[in-house]
Write a structure and sequence with these properties.
The protein has 288 residues and is of the alpha+beta class. The protein is 45% helix and 16% strand.
Length: 288
């Protein structure tokens, strides 16, 4: 059985053991975690190999944020709010929402992110700093065994850019708070209850501009009191970090190598720094 098949079997087994009928599973997303819609019980399940303690962190944080009124996807109310471990996998169960159209407008997206940030300032949790994400990217770039297809010149260039951006952002001394970490459109559900954020495992502490660097340009235009210089540096940092992740051995991102090449080209080309959704859209257009 493939890992995906085993993960699906585990998720349906966990749901069934809780009295939630799950005779079928639809794969919604497959990258570092498998996202499934279990039917007919209509539960959103996330599955990952055991050992990723962030699952526990994500469940606890989701509960805390929901309590203070943050626009986050709630856990499945018909199951205990915890991580279910079975057959080498960790499974978490969430409320499934049918997507609605039209998709979230930039204004509503910005308002929801502002509400999320405001709620996060009320929650006292231990979380990593955003610079830990930079360290993860630097370690991939520094180790040829982890990024064997990355050319040596690109390795030196990307390593230097990550280090210089870390220093530049740190030197600004901006106010930091709890952040989503990756509030890009793929982590925002358009629901009848308005936009809801998912995938809280990336939460970290940092300036709000780090979160804004992941969202479309039009969303930033409706978010109040943005430090444009810091946002520019954070956008460049996001491009550099994602470039590193796309070169990691075993990366499962669709068309990941081509994405990694394009991000390196953009870093060398210089400003203005595009948002990630713009880069993805550009690549999709080239493929078509």
């Amino acid at each position: 059985m493939t890992d995906v098949t085993r993960a699906i079997a585990t998720a349906t087994s966990v749901a069934a053991s809780l009295g939630l009928p799950a005779s079928d599973a639809i794969v919604l997303h497959n990258s570092n975690k498998l996202a499934l819609r279990l039917t007919p019980c209509d539960v959103f399940a996330r599955v990952a190999p055991v050992g990723q303690e962030v699952a526990r962190f994500e469940v606890e944080l989701a509960q805390r944020l929901a309590e203070v009124g943050c626009p986050v996807c709630p856990l499945e109310p018909r199951a205990d709010p915890r991580v279910y471990t079975r057959d080498g996998f960790a499974v978490t169960l969430w409320t499934y929402y049918e997507p609605v159209t039209p998709h979230t407008s930039p204004v509503d997206y910005a308002k929801a992110l502002e509400r999320l940030h405001a709620g996060m300032r009320k929650v006292d949790v231990s979380s990593p700093r955003f610079t830990d994400r930079i360290t993860e990217a630097e370690e991939i770039v520094a180790d040829p065994d982890r990024s064997p297809e990355l050319a040596e010149a690109d390795r030196v260039f990307l390593s230097g850019r990550l280090a210089s951006l870390r220093r530049a952002i740190d030197d600004r001394g901006a106010v930091e708070q709890l952040l989503h970490g990756e509030p890009h459109p793929g982590n925002v559900l358009s629901t009848k209850n308005g936009p809801l954020f998912i995938d809280l495992e990336t939460c970290c502490r940092g300036p709000v501009e780090f979160d804004l660097a992941h969202v479309p340009e039009a969303v930033c235009e409706h978010y109040p009191s943005v430090d444009e210089g810091l946002l520019d540096e954070c956008r460049q940092l996001v491009i550099a970090m994602v470039a590193a992740w796309r070169w990691e051995l075993g990366d499962q991102f669709p068309n990941g190598r081509r994405f990694g090449e394009e991000l390196l080209r953009l870093l060398r080309e210089g400003p203005p720094w595009p948002t990630l959704d713009t880069v993805v859209g550009r690549l999709d257009g080239l493929r078509q």
